[in-house]
């Protein structure tokens, strides 16, 4: 059996496939192709900031004239990266036959490691690696302006993050380091300041450093000391007893540092305008009944807030309910005249007759004047108004009860009055002040007998000649020796009059004697 010996001489194992020699000394050329891998940027390691982005390019180059290209892929910690697009943050992107990009977006802690680009062509493999380290720059989440409350313990916050973990030093603005003492205590993320005064309101420096990188962040904190506002006095209402239609002010005063702002509310509804927010004085114009209610004053500043409320009691001037201007009554009957009023507060009611107060005689055994009684309020009082009434009770109406009455209602919210005319219907009477009942006559003389009567309705008057035998008498007509004068009337005074003229002749002895006048209306008649 013949044997052929092949001797392979390996040269540049990284770039060339071996040349193989047969027994006869000729070179046997392999089908494998030489290539090399390069990573851009060309660095053994990269230190990348947290949340930054990076693109690393893997590029292959073939070392001979072959048109074949190696297959490229990226791997991290020996695990192949296959994602090619979002939402993945770590992806690969083919740019050409000989380029494959590694893209890392929004770099996070945990993304650090060894990233390797591997190329394969036939039986040949080549790779390059790059180490990625992730660090986090200094960031501070505390506020630049912070607030503490006067007299209390304050905390000046400085919450800093970085990787590696940073070192923090609290200082005054002049760079003097603050150390633990009775006044100050330094904790992990804050400086504690006890028994705050207004002198503690200043700038403080939180000096943050990552020593291994030399990164430094001097964070200035403007610290303010405030006094929580306190409403020391009750809210003042002016006028003290406001009524419907008034302009009223509510003054709320508070002590605080800085000066507090004010907010007025009623039933959760904000009543505050730009002026009252700064001054603490709320003005309500043309006050209405539905403005009544609890008004809340809230004062606030950066330190906190306080509240106080007051009840706004809107008074309603009294009014008199509708009642007739004229009311009629008949002599002898019972009559009630009531004046009902409403307001807030409930008004006091009085009656007057022609300027003189009407008093109740309920404690006296007399019926000269009406009896006054108070009437309780009823359910017609609305919008917070309170109603009441006062009644004049006439047990038996007389003519002298007629006249003009005035109902007056008074409260500290105002007053009102109503005039009522009581008109009494009565039969005629002769209590008029005219008292002549005896007349004289002589020969050839004419006597004037006058009858004056009071009545409502106005009375008609008739004359009679009476005797012992005829007490009713005979109606007199106009004929000798009598003459009846036309009646006269004064309706405004409920008076009527009629005169009888009697002429005495020589033989007229019959004209002497008794005469009667009769006054009559629909209610009755009277004689005199």
From TrEMBL:
For this UniProt record, the keywords arranged alphabetically read as follows: Disulfide bond, Signal
Which InterPro entries would you find in this protein's record?
A: Cell_Adh-Cytoskel_Orgn (IPR050958), Ig-like_dom (IPR007110), Ig-like_dom_sf (IPR036179), Ig-like_fold (IPR013783), Ig_I-set (IPR013098), Ig_sub (IPR003599), Ig_sub2 (IPR003598)
In its UniProt record, a GO molecular function of this protein is: axon guidance receptor activity
Enumerate the residue ranges of region (Disordered).
Answer: 356-392
Where does the Ig-like domain lie? 41-131, 229-311, 318-423, 428-528
Signal peptide coordinates: 1-22
The name on file for this protein is: Ig-like domain-containing protein
SMART domains xref list: IG, IGc2
Its GO CC terms? axon; neuronal cell body; plasma membrane
KW NADP (keyword) present: no
Write out the biased-composition intervals (Acidic residues).
Answer: 361-381
**What biological-process terms (Gene Ontology) are attached?**
homophilic cell adhesion via plasma membrane adhesion molecules; synapse organization
Q: Which domain of life is it from?
A: Eukaryota
């Amino acid at each position: 059996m013949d044997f052929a010996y092949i001797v392979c001489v390996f040269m540049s194992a990284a770039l060339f496939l071996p040349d193989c020699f047969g027994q006869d000394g000729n070179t046997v050329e392999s089908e494998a192709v030489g290539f090399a891998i390069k990573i851009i940027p060309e660095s053994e390691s990269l230190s990348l900031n947290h949340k930054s982005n990076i693109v690393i390019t893997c590029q292959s180059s073939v070392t001979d004239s072959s048109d074949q290209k190696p297959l490229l892929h990226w791997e991290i910690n020996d695990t192949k990266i296959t994602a090619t697009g979002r939402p993945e943050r770590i992806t690969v992107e083919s740019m050409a036959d000989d380029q494959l990009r590694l893209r890392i977006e929004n770099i996070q802690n945990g993304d650090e490691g060894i990233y390797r680009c591997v190329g394969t062509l036939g039986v040949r493999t080549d790779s390059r690696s790059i180490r990625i380290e992730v660090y986090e720059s200094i960031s501070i989440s505390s506020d630049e302006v912070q607030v503490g409350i006067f007299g209390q313990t304050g905390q000046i916050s400085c919450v800093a993050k970085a990787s590696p973990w940073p070192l923090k030093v609290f200082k005054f603005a002049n760079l003097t380091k603050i150390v633990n003492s009775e006044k100050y205590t330094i904790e992990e993320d804050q400086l504690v300041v006890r028994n705050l005064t207004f002198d503690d309101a200043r700038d403080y420096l939180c000096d943050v450093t990552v020593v291994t990188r030399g990164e430094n962040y001097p964070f200035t904190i403007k610290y303010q000391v405030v006094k929580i506002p306190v409403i020391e006095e009750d809210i003042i209402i002016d006028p003290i007893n406001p009524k419907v239609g008034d302009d009223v002010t509510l003054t709320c005063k508070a002590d605080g540092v800085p000066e507090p702002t004010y907010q007025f509310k009623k039933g959760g509804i904000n009543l505050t305008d730009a002026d009252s927010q700064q001054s603490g004085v709320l003005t309500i114009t043309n006050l209405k009944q539905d403005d009544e209610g609890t008004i809340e004053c809230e004062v606030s500043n950066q330190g906190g807030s306080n509240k106080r409320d007051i009840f706004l009691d809107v008074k309603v001037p009294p009014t008199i309910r509708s009642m007739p201007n004229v009311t009629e009554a008949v002599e002898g009957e019972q009559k009630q005249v009531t004046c009902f009023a409403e307001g807030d507060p409930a008004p006091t009611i009085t009656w007057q007759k022609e300027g003189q107060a009407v008093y109740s005689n309920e404690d006296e055994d007399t019926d000269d004047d009406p009896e006054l009684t108070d009437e309780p309020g009823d359910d017609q009082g609305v919008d917070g108004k309170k109603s009441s009434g006062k009644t004049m009770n006439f047990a038996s109406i007389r003519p002298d009860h007629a006249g003009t009455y005035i109902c007056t209602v008074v409260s500290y919210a105002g007053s009102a009055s109503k005039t009522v005319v009581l008109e009494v219907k009565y039969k005629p009477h002769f209590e008029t002040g005219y008292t002549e009942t005896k007349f004289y006559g002589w020969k050839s003389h004419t006597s004037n007998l006058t009858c004056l009567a009071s009545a409502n309705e106005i009375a008609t008057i008739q004359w009679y000649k009476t005797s012992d035998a005829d007490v009713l008498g005979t109606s007199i007509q106009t004929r000798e020796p009598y003459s009846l004068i036309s009646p006269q009337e004064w309706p405004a005074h409920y008076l009527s009059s009629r005169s009888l003229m009697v002429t005495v002749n020589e033989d007229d002895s019959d004209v002497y004697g008794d005469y009667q006048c009769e006054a009559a209306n629909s209610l009755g008649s009277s004689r005199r």
